[in-house]
Amino acid sequence: MTYAPIKSLLIANRSEIAIRVMRAAAEMDIRTVAIYSKEDRLALQRFKSDESYLVGEGKEPLAAYLDIDDVLRVARQANVDAIDPGYGFLSGNPGFAQAVIDAGMRWIGPTPEVKRMLGNKVAARNSTIAAGVPVMPASDPLPHDLEQCRRLAA
User: Fold this and answer.
1) Is residue 138 part of a domain?
2) pLDDT tens digit sequence for 102-145
3) Are residues 61 and 92 in the same domain?
4) 100/144 same-domain check
5) Is 100 exposed, middle or buried (0-12, 13-18, 19+ CB in 10 A)?
6) Which terminal residue of the chain, N or C, has fewer Cβ atoms less than 10 Å from its own Cβ?
């Protein structure tokens, strides 16, 4: 699949994480859009981005950054091509990744399917082994029977 170059990017994060993404975007001549909570209205990402928008108005700071519908509202309003979640907050949420894709924007990061699989540590380990990547030795998931667990530990 061939993608058109990204011309504008919303960073769905804050602080140093957002600044790092903005630096990379600036080097690639990509317009940046930041979000900020009311409490972060003086935060650096608001002033270092090309544009910035309040997200999650009336919500506590953490809830503001986790408001998927409002992040997408800002992305539409700012007419961005793509969303980069940074790390933390919504970055591990496969539902957010899917919502971005469903909204017709590019998602910067692993696909929702990969996120779902990696969210299950047993499935992630098994897929790593299946791909031929070396892993540290470990036991299988422990049985529910305490006596069997004791035997395995011995």
Assistant:
1) yes
2) 999 999 999 999 999 888 888 888 888 999 999 998 877 788 99
3) yes
4) no
5) buried
6) N
